[in-house]
Amino acid sequence: MNGQLTFLRERGFDITVIAAPSESLDVVRDREQVATIPISIEREISPVADARTLSRLCVILRKLRPDIVNAGTPKAGLLGMIAARLTGVPVRFYTLRGLRLETTSGFKQRLLTTTERIAASCAHQVICVGDSLQQEFIRRRLVAADKTIVLRHGSSNGVRAERFQYSAEQFAQIETLRASLRIPTGVPVLGFVGRLTRDKGIVDLHSAFTQLLSEFPDLHLVLIGWPEEGDPVPSAVWQSIQNHPQIIRTGAIKDPSLHYGLFDVFVFPSYREGFPNVPMEAAAAGVPVVGYSATGTLDAVVNGVTGTLVPLHDTTSLTAATAEYLLNPLMRHRHGEAGRRRALTDFRSEDIWQSLADLYGHWLSERGLPLPNPSSEKKVPIRKAA
């Protein structure tokens, strides 16, 4: 939500962010100049802890008496929506940022299906961050179609494309970065940004990279992100990633905008998304994207225009599509420039923010509640559980 909360605050909304305590929450408080309330929210299923969190949320909402609650992520979305309904919040939004249940099975999938239905039922409207996510949510009968909305072309927050319009000075910094990562000048580079987990397709990416080395022996792979214990890649694959001299792991980076300038192709074999930010960042940097035709990625990449999408789990096609870009600089440039234009025109952050502000205003009017006034001392409170 970088910039989004400041935008809303400057338009008269009084915002409080309720989230798990973290350094990120402190950064949001200081950067966006909004109130924050840290509250323990377990990511995984934990009935006792979840009951405590729900009780605490109800206490907070009764005290704050917000006009609007907007809750997102599976756990915070569920508990936030239940608490908002129990405390009679007049306008309630559930922001659907992805469907975790897509890559689960058995009891866990049934449980997550139930929790999604509950969260949606407690909301007056479900904001889906992408068209394919909206379609999948409806297809699974988790919500009535007329209860959902996608703002503009989708995404959670748009993309600040100007960060990727490199100046001569920044191009020089990119070359310095290349040297610091020990990537030789002129060799092809694949890039990935995100969690280094099984769901993000890291096993498939590793497989494609190792196959490509036979045709492109100088190929390098840059992985920007971190592993997670909840969804680890197999130990043999992780060991190979750690030991391979042409696979560079940077760890988590707060602002990887210059790193995109290193990439010839951005490979994103994620199994499921809401609306992924990093393919749009790659597009803004003029880098074509190869990915799976997964929920969410379908909206971030225009197949055959800004990148190439292949069938889910088809590593052979993933490898072939990546090789085609490496062999065809003209197509690489053409698709990269198309992605840049799309990022600049369709996914401006300010347009997404304005659409959200307009949606809030519509529902406030429907409920006969006061509209925000930037010059007013008393502002309309909006509570985001994330």
Keywords:
about 375 residues, Rossmann fold, 2 domains, seven-stranded parallel beta sheet, six-stranded parallel beta sheet, about 45% helix, about 15% strand
Could you characterize the architecture of this molecule?
This protein is an alpha/beta fold. Helix content is 44%, strand content 16%. The chain has helices at residues 4-10, 23-32, 47-64, 74-86, 106-122, 131-139, 168-180, 202-212, 235-243, 277-284, 297-300, 315-327, 329-346, 349-366; strands spanning 13-19, 35-38, 68-72, 91-96, 125-128, 148-150, 189-193, 220-224, 247-251, 265-268, 289-292, 307-310, 380-385. The strands form 2 sheets. Strands 2-1-13-3-4-5-6 form a 7-stranded parallel β-sheet, with helices on both faces. It has a 6-stranded parallel β-sheet with strand order 9-8-7-10-11-12, sandwiched between helices. Helix 4 packs across helix 5 (106-122) and helix 8 packs across helix 12. The N and C termini lie close together (10 Å).
In short:
With 386 residues, this protein is an alpha/beta fold.
Structural class: alpha/beta
CATH class of the largest domain: Alpha Beta
How many domain units? 2
| Beta-strand residue percentage | 15-25%
The low-pLDDT segments are: none
Q: Approximately how much helix is present in the residues?
A: 40-55%
What's the CATH architecture name of the largest domain? 3-Layer(aba) Sandwich
Sketch the major β-sheet: 7 strands, parallel
Distance between the termini: 10 Å
- Lateral strand order in the biggest sheet: 2-1-13-3-4-5-6
Number of helices: 14
Task: Report the principal-axis shape.
Answer: globular
pLDDT averaged residue by residue: 95
